[in-house]
């Protein structure tokens, strides 16, 4: 088997501990096979799988392993700690993910070195995929041996779907091929025009770069490292272009998919159209394993970008919040001209970074911001403001990569535009925001966008219907330190679910939320992430994944399973 490419860890192969064993008296037929079970594959069986996938099977060595005895390496450990909050270390590792909550302190680099390095919540094995047969062989192996199956690309997933104790993973990250179509045309689609096909491992920045070569742009995410064809587009996919072009899922033309029954198929508006519909916004990692997606491309455009910062220093709490209220008043008119606004704030500082105006002049943005800036001046609030124009989309998003990972937990809901168009609604929103920030101690991510039916081109897809009325994705954030115990982290998540999400739910249409960036433990997750589409999506799931091999806690069909005490996955009610 190939040795896993552990980033920046040098020296001899590190041998790590395995899972502790538990006797929970759970019938084996109701659970996935787990390391230590009598039915767990023998080393010879794993060797046979490795041979069948061209030697691309990787046995997991957690990224934090050099921080623990008996193979402690101080320099390597310090390097892991230094890069723990950087995306590249986790993207390039076959089993690491970017959300420490779902690693459950397994072989954590910040626990004492004498703590055992259990693989724990990491997958047990990974197949570094380079061709469809590698996926097919892995799926066949998982079914034959009743092993949990995970799909991983970059591991950038706040919902915990990229890992699982005792699982085998298909790692799609190195699938980087793209194909440009000047004139895409297919009998399976009514669209004729430019398009881009990308394999599952292509990331947002790579999508942007390829489209720019041809004078076009793609509706892609703000974060440049996110895998485009995976959970991003399958979950809907918001973008700085969403107020003018809708969500990423609104532009899908076809998917190439490997099913859990071992078929390589195409899903489009006229071929396997139920699967196409579900993959276009109905949630990732549960219907099939996406090999590629083809999406519409659009002519590149000039973009105005503005940034504004102010703090509570030197002013009263009341005036600080008056400044935030003044910001809220200028968001609806900006959204009406196609803008995108990325604001974050807590009780001490406010950042609008950036405001994006696609095909909007600098003078127009200045004029629309002037009431807000005048109010800040009147309140005596000092601020920093700058505004620039960019010839291309890729120029405007350059530098939009200052994303910290790890160390925080999310909640949040989609809020409708109607809430902000009356004084009563605005007051209710501001009162809720004040309580979340000032009383609850949260940091909020207040994303202004308007991915309406019109903006998206009136698509027929599985995107949550509440996106079409939304003008905000309002997410609450609580930070934790790397050394914090799991008890504190779990208490904070309960606070997010109860103290923050419940009040926001009352402001929403029916409690809708973005299935990629919200509370992964929301008790109402079916309606929150899928709305009225859930039953139809479940029928698609049952058709294309009849053995229920694909699982996620908040993925469609996820409530049929539960993770029990030792980490194994078991059927509910059996």
TrEMBL record:
Q: Which PROSITE patterns match?
A: FAD_PCMH (PS51387)
Alphabetic keyword roster = Oxidoreductase
| The keyword Endoplasmic reticulum is assigned to this record | no
Enumerate the spans annotated as FAD-binding PCMH-type domain. 118-300
InterPro entries hit by this protein: BBE, FAD-bd_PCMH, FAD-bd_PCMH-like_sf, FAD-bd_PCMH_sub2, FAD-linked_Oxidoreductases_BP, Oxid_FAD_bind_N
Q: Which Pfam families match?
A: BBE, FAD_binding_4
Q: GO: which molecular function terms?
A: FAD binding; oxidoreductase activity
Superkingdom: Eukaryota
The answer to keyword Oxidoreductase applying to this record is yes
Q: Which family does it belong to?
A: Belongs to the oxygen-dependent FAD-linked oxidoreductase family.
Which protein is depicted?
FAD-binding PCMH-type domain-containing protein
């Amino acid at each position: 088997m190939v040795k896993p490419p552990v980033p920046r860890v040098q020296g001899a192969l590190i041998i790590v501990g395995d899972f502790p064993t538990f006797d929970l008296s759970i019938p084996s037929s109701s659970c996935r096979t787990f390391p230590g079970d009598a039915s767990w594959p023998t080393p010879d069986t794993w060797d046979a799988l490795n041979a069948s996938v061209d030697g691309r099977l990787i046995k997991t060595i957690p990224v934090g392993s050099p921080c623990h005895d008996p193979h402690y390496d101080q320099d390597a450990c310090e390097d892991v700690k230094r890069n723990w909050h950087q995306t590249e270390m986790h993207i390039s590792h076959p089993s690491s993910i970017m959300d420490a909550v779902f690693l459950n302190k397994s072989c954590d680099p910040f626990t004492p070195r004498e703590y055992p390095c259990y693989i724990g919540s990491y997958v047990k094995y990974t197949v570094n995929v380079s061709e469809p047969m590698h996926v097919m062989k892995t799926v066949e192996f998982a079914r034959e041996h009743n092993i949990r199956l995970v799909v991983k690309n970059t591991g950038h997933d706040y919902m915990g779907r990229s890992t699982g104790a005792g699982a085998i993973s298909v790692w799609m990250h190195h699938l980087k091929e793209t194909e440009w179509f000047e004139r895409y045309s297919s009998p399976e689609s009514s669209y004729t025009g430019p398009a881009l096909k990308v394999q599952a491992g292509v990331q947002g920045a790579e999508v942007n770069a390829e489209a720019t070569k041809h004078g076009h742009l793609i509706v892609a995410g703000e974060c440049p490292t996110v895998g485009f064809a995976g959970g991003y587009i399958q979950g809907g996919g918001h973008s700085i272009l969403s107020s003018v072009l809708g969500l990423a899922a609104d532009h899908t033309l076809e998917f190439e998919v490997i099913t859990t029954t071992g078929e390589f198929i195409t899903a489009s508006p006229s071929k396997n159209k139920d699967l196409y519909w579900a993959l276009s916004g109905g949630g990732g990692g549960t219907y099939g394993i996406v090999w590629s997606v083809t999406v519409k491309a659009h002519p590149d455009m000039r973009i105005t970008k503005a940034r504004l910062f102010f703090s509570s220093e030197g002013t009263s709490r009341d005036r600080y919040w008056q400044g935030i209220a003044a910001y809220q008043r200028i968001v609806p008119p900006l959204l009406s001209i196609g803008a995108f606004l990325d604001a974050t704030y807590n009780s001490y500082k406010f950042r609008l970074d950036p405001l994006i105006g696609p095909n909007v002049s600098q003078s127009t943005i200045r004029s629309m911001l002037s009431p807000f800036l005048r109010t800040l001046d009147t309140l005596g609030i000092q601020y920093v403001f700058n505004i620039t124009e960019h010839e291309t989309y890729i120029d405007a998003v350059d530098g939009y990569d200052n994303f910290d990972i790890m160390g925080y937990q999310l909640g949040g809901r989609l809020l409708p535009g109607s809430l902000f168009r009356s004084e009563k609604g605005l007051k209710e929103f501001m009162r809720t925001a004040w309580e979340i920030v000032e009383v609850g101690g949260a940091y909020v991510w207040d994303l202004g966008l308007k991915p309406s039916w019109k903006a998206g081109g009136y698509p027929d897809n599985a995107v949550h219907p509440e996106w079409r009325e939304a003008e905000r994705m309002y997410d609450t954030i609580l930070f934790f330190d790397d050394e914090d115990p799991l008890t504190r982290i779990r208490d904070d998540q309960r606070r997010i679910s109860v103290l923050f999400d419940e009040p926001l739910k009352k402001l929403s249409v029916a409690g809708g939320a973005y299935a990629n960036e919200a509370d992964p433990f929301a008790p109402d997750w079916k309606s929150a992430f899928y709305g009225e589409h859930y039953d139809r999506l479940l029928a698609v799931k049952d058709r294309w994944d009849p053995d229920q091999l694909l699982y996620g806690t908040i993925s469609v069909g996820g409530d049929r399973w539960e993770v029990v005490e030792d980490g194994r996955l078991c059927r509910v009610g059996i």
